[in-house]
Amino acid sequence: MLLAQVDIKKVFAPAGLFTSVADLVGFIVKLLALGAGLFAFITFIYAAYLYVSSQGKPEQLDKAHKAVIQSLVGLLIIAAAYFVIQMLANFLGIPF
Asked: Where are the domains positioned within the chain?
């Protein structure tokens, strides 16, 4: 007796894109890394705007300098986290 068994690909078409949980997790990780990288890039552009519009005021220059450093450190952390996840997936033999 078969109860509540449905071909998910017919009911929810995007489910056909992911053949395993590893594919789904890989897609989510890549999407999150892309979003975080985009956020870091926008923050860097904002910091550059702060620097250009500071008009030589020391407190605004300091704020812009901190924002540049924070955005670059964030971008490095994102890249390092993505690299570690890739290495871990390769080590465990998970297709990513």
From this structure: 19-92
